[in-house]
Amino acid sequence: MNVKAESYAFLGDVSATARGGTTARVVSALREAIVSLELPPGTQLDKNALCERLGVSRFPVSEALSRLQAEGLVEIRPQSGTTVSLIRLGDVRENLFMRRALEAEAVRSLAQNLKPDLLQALQRNIRYQKAAANAGDPIGFHKLDLEFHEIIFTALGFPRVRASVESARLGLDRIRRLLASKRRHKLTYDEHARVVAALEKGDGDAAAAAMINHLDAVMEELLSLAEKQPEIFADRAPQPVHRAALAAKAQARKRGM
User: Fold this and answer.
1) Over the stretch 127-165, which tens digit does the pLDDT of each residue have?
2) Are residues 8 and 46 in the same domain?
């Protein structure tokens, strides 16, 4: 194996994997490497080295990169090659805007006729979140975080709404990994717990407000990260008006605690 191929040591050989077509397996392997930040934003990709490491020909790699370009995860430029896309704050804002609107209304709606089994599932989930956060288990916490929101949209029972939220969530996966820390996990647990506490009281407005505060807190931290690490963002200058609004909301949250 050549030196360039060895630089992709975190990728496995997908040639002998039975599940799915070759291109689909390459897409899955590269997407996970990008989302998990094994391939950080701005990384130049060597197609030949990827072929050698993954154990496949050039066609599935080329096709996989085209699909990932359509998802906004890579950029293919004929003159300069293929790179992992920088993160666009504009895209993050749009995805969070969608989640903010749909998830707030989801918990508001569920609070009107909250089923005991839904409440029990959410209570169990946040107990496990607390344990994972205290244990410093990022993988476990990540799975529980996803499950928390999945429980809500499964209970809501609107498949198109669920698909829209899932699409927005996929667009935020790199952000979730970038912001992951023991501190952020504990804050996320607290934010989720406030949503559940409001649902326990049947207070839909409070549950919606808690969900909005949770998602706004993510955006606020991301803007702070963009100032510290501008090299991984395509549109690194935050919008002053939006940032001021988030700062005001942060102060309001502190006064309310």
Assistant:
1) 999 999 999 999 899 999 999 999 999 999 999 999 999
2) yes
Strand order in 81-84's β-sheet? Answer: 44-45, 81-84, 74-77
- Cα–Cα distance list, 118 to 102, 122, 193, 213 (Å): 18, 6, 14, 22
pTM of the full structure: 0.79
Domain range spanning residue 22? 3-84
Question: Do 116 and 21 lie in a common domain?
Answer: no
Q: Return the amino acid letter for 219.
A: M
For residue range 70-125, list pLDDT tens digits in order. Answer: 888 999 998 888 999 999 999 999 999 999 999 999 999 999 999 999 999 999 99
Domain termination residue (choose one: 84, 104, 126): 84
